[in-house]
Design a protein that fits this description.
Blueprint (H helix, E strand, L loop, with lengths): L5 H9 L7 H7 L4 H10 L5 H17 L6 H7 L5 H11 L8 H10 L3 H10 L1 H8 L5 H16 L5 H11 L6 H15 L3 H14 L5 H4 L8 H13 L6 H7 L5 H14 L4 H16 L3 H32 L16 H6 L25
Amino acid sequence: MHAWSLDELLAALQDTSKPFPAAGLYRLSDLPPEEAKAIAAIWPKLPLARRRALVEDMQSFLDYSDRFSFVEMGLIALNDEDPYVRQRAIELLWGEADERLIPHLVRVLREDPDTRVRAQAAAALGEYVYLGEVEEISPRRYQEVAEALRAVLTDETEPLEVRRRALEAYSFASDPDVARWIEAFYQRGTQDDDEESLLSALFAMGRSADPRWTRYVVLHLHDRRPKVRAEAATAAGRLEMKRVIPDLLELLEDADRDVRMAAAWALSELGGGEDEVERALQRALQHAEDVNDEEEMQVLAEALDNLAFNTSLVTAQLDLLDLLLDGADLIDDVTLDLPDEYYRTQRTSHSGFEGTNGASHKSNSKSSKPKS
């Protein structure tokens, strides 16, 4: 493949007589700072349609493969005059886990004039709340994230959409105020029949990993609203609510596809070692194949893989327990048949970065953005 020079790249960006070629999109990945500066200089001069198409096409590349990184382009687009471009720019930065991006996202949350853009920035900060909790970013940067999200949550004059996303993002935090905010959004969702607030509360309950919320989640597994059923199923999986496996098996046959997919992933999290769960997922996969539903087929196949992984964890833990009960003296010298990702999984439990309203089950944070 011909390696584009910077001049060729700039010329192609400005040539609006034809679509920007895929080869140019490859070239925009992992831009050196000096080339990003040159593109930033011409970016405002590009027609709006070209700028929108570029951020959409770059996102399509990220959806296709995580080999690409458009951080520099995302930062350029973050300063665009068009709210849609700015919102898509945040998606380009999603999942990079680079604390140098925190000041940019915090600035957008605090200062952007568009509510949807601010809400997107709040949601994107959720990853950094998690990283702060596991001490993988500096305390100073984590404090910056926490203060920005808390400021939104404590200000009831803020737009509800921004506050909802801030709650979802901050629910990873060990801050005792999180429970109070979750309760407030839950009450708003149930008493005022505000479905969006209820969805955010359920999402935050699952992400918090706090068992106090199980009594609320179980109430909504058979809610009349499909989005609520799906979010409750997801929360049940995250909260390790094994007692609701029968309910989730029932939801696996729900009329709504998003509910079925949420139930499938929750079952894969809870059903390790459960033959009934594996059989139910296999039947669901066969049905999806019969009707040629590719998205549901993919989710179910991944759920079966995840179930197998979790089953191997259960087996390994039982083996370890047997050794302990047998009085093994040098347990550190014993080699167990643990899966390769065992220790990573123990460290990053509850670390998905999904959003509400049909949240993706996937752990790849680049592909797990709110759909609303």
